[in-house]
Amino acid sequence: MHIILTGATGTVGSAVLHYCLASPKVTQLSILSRRPFSLPSGDHLDIQKANIIIHEDYSTYPDELSMKLKGADGCIWAQGISQTQVKKDEYVRITHDYPLAAAKSFSSLSNTGKFNFIYVSGEGADPTENSKLLFGRIKGLTESELLSLPSTSTWEALRVFNVRPGYVDPPNPDRPRPLVLRLLVDYALAPAFRQFLPSQVTPVKVLAKVLVDLATSDGNALQGGPGIEGGGRTLRNVAIRSLGEA
């Protein structure tokens, strides 16, 4: 299957990139990136199926780009940023506006009549938008609006899944982060989660497997179970661990 990936240099995206390059399920990988980067190397990685496409504005998808992506079957939207790193307007644009614009544009790419759009959200996302945290409100709003798209004939080909990891472990050591944030997370919060709240930790390789499995699936809603919500289209961390470690 032909899969689109964003956020390939981030913690989640880099793990998904490795998994896609190693997985026979993915026969073609289109990577949208704002800047060039080097693909990972390894005997088990098939970099020949990957194509890095430089795309700076994630709010628009011109015809030239759509032609390069034509025939894609799904997208793993792993692009994102912490609310602590940007101002509110920028956070809303990256977290909400960009994935909505992409899902709408990508909905007509597949030759099968359906397109899987996998949105990497996070535990704490609140579709009711009552959360006191900006993260919770905006992620929740994005989840809700993505799930509503297929009810409109224009985007009825979409098969949306919202995936909510907890603390993703281990973090990408190459990801640029402010020193204070890195010290707080890596040396205070991360050890505490591992020791006292292991159920809230999401092993990054497990997460990558689940994301790719969803992107290459038939797009049907998942059967109910612990951590599976939203009519089988929202996966909380307990479901990610269960599916990925099975």
UniProtKB/TrEMBL annotation:
Gene3D superfamilies: NAD(P)-binding Rossmann-like Domain. It comes from the Eukaryota. PANTHER family: NAD(P)-BINDING DOMAIN-CONTAINING PROTEIN, OXIDOREDUCTASE HTATIP2. This is NAD(P)-binding domain-containing protein. It comes from Lipomyces starkeyi NRRL Y-11557. The lineage of its organism: Eukaryota, Fungi, Dikarya, Ascomycota, Saccharomycotina.
